[in-house]
Every structure is written in structure tokens, then in C-alpha cells.
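Input C-alpha cells:
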């Protein structure tokens, strides 16, 4: 796209939207939000950047193919579900929590790691689909 306004706005909106997506991710295991919604917001940030600056510049900004995020996220979500089984002998997907809260994040537990895995899968899937469609168009 040749719009100077959109190009300038996307340069400033990318870091703000990524920060907002991390906020939604961390907010998710206490209030509405989480890995899925945060991943969609992060994907929208990169898609907006790709529309205004081009696909090649966006791919150099990412530094890796977004398809790599899918197996990493799936593995993280699976391991967070299996952790209670191996650590305490409790059933699959039982919540485990560290005893002390982290200063900014709050209570850290297996739900947060599951949400991070979902976040990575959603970003990987949506960017792979959009980039593939954009390359073939």
C-alpha cells in the first residue's frame, strides 16, 4: 500500500499492539482474555504492518517463519498439561501454582504456560495462513 499515513501509523501501532497482546495474555487466567485473544491481537499487529510495509519487510522483522511457532506452542501447552502428572501425580491439566506471586505478573502456574502455548500456536497459524495467501495473490 502506498499510504504514508498507514505506513507511519503501523510503525507506531506494531509495538503498542504487541504490548497490548502480552497484557491480554497475562490477564487471561484471572479475567477474560488469554492466549487465544492475545495471539489474535499479535497477529493483527503483524498483518497491519505487512499491509503497509510489505510482506518481505515483515518477514525480516519476524526473523523466523511463523510456522515454527506452532510446534513450539503445542509442545509448551502439552508439557504444561502433563506437568501435574509427573510432578505431583495428579490428573492431566490440573493447575499447579508457584507458592509466591511474581512482582508484576501475579501468580504463576501451569495455566499461564498453557496460555503461552496457545498464544504461540494462534500467532503461528494465523500468520502462516495470511502470509501464504499473500504470497500466492
Amino acid at each position: 500500500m502506498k499510504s504514508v499515513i498507514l505506513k507511519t501509523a503501523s510503525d507506531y501501532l506494531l509495538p503498542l499492539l504487541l504490548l497490548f497482546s502480552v497484557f491480554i495474555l497475562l490477564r487471561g487466567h484471572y479475567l477474560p482474555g488469554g492466549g487465544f485473544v492475545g495471539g489474535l491481537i499479535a497477529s493483527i499487529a503483524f498483518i497491519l504492518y505487512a499491509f503497509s510495509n510489505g510482506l518481505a519487510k515483515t518477514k525480516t522483522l519476524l526473523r523466523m517463519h511463523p510456522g515454527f511457532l506452532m510446534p513450539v506452542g503445542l509442545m509448551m501447552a502439552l508439557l504444561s498439561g502433563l506437568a501435574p502428572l509427573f510432578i505431583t501425580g495428579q490428573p492431566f491439566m490440573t493447575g499447579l501454582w508457584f507458592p509466591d506471586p511474581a512482582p508484576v505478573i501475579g501468580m504463576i502456574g501451569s495455566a499461564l504456560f498453557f496460555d503461552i502455548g496457545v498464544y504461540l500456536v494462534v500467532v503461528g497459524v494465523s500468520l502462516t495462513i495470511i502470509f501464504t495467501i499473500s504470497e500466492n495473490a
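The CA atoms of residues 25 and 102 lie 15 Å apart. Residues 110-136 form the longest helix (27 residues).
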